[in-house]
Amino acid sequence: MEDRKEIINSGAHLTVFLQTIRGNISPGRNTVLVVDDEKAIRMTVARDVRKFDPDVVIFEASNGLEALDRLAEIRKKFLRDPLLIILDLNMPVMDGWEVINRLKADYEEKGREAGIPIVVLSSTSGEKGGFFGGKKSVHDGKSGYSPLVSIAKETCVDGAKYDAAGEKGLMAWLQFFLKEG
């Protein structure tokens, strides 16, 4: 719990994360990309995002390669990036770390300091390890691109803990990220 607070309260990174989301909000054109190899997780997350904003268009992917394809589809259809990506780390074909690395490279190549905000929804840190325990940085000190906030899967989908109406789980996170001020 303490590690999560340290990540969330990382000041400048969280500010960039929130500013990026707020700057991308556009009525009728908001999208969210949900990436997880477990369909039940994708469905739960999509349902809760729609509770927060019924007009948001949800795109889903079951692995990192599909996620990059969906991202290209979103950019082509909406001429903009999604508000955020909700991303699992442990997936077949291409893991979440590789997705993060490719997005980071894309934004660094464009000379931008921040990219699409990413919420990591994973019960472990993936094969690369070290993120939850060692606070691994996704930018390795190169550009300041670090819109990564972690949420453990069990926090969002464990029935004993998950209660969007009670300010727990993903709904509370979305409300926090999108609130004004």
Q: Could you characterize what this model shows?
A:
It is built from eight helices and five strands; from the N terminus they run ααβαβαβαβαβαα. With 181 residues, the protein is of the alpha/beta class. The protein has one domain (2-178): Rossmann fold, CATH 3.40.50.2300. A five-stranded parallel beta sheet has the order 2-1-3-4-5, sandwiched between helices. Helix 3 links the parallel strand 1 (31-35) and strand 2. The chain is globular and about 35 Å long.
CATH architecture group name:
3-Layer(aba) Sandwich
Give the CA-CA distance, first to last residue: 25 Å
Discrete helix count:
8
Domain count: 1
Q: What's the CATH topology name?
A: Rossmann fold
Low-pLDDT runs of 5+ residues are 1-12, 125-167
Q: Total number of β-strand segments?
A: 5
Helix coverage percent of residues?
Answer: 40-55%
Q: Give the strand order of the largest sheet, numbering strands 1, 2, ... along the chain.
A: 2-1-3-4-5
Instruction: Name the overall outline.
Output: globular
Oligomer: single chain
Q: Return the structural class.
A: alpha/beta
Q: What topology does this entry show?
A:
Layout (H helix, E strand, L loop, with lengths): L1 H7 L3 H13 L6 E5 L3 H14 L4 E5 L2 H15 L5 E4 L8 H14 L8 E4 L9 H4 L13 E4 L1 H5 L11 H10 L3
Parallel strand pairs: 1-2, 1-3, 3-4, 4-5
Helix pairs in contact: 3-8
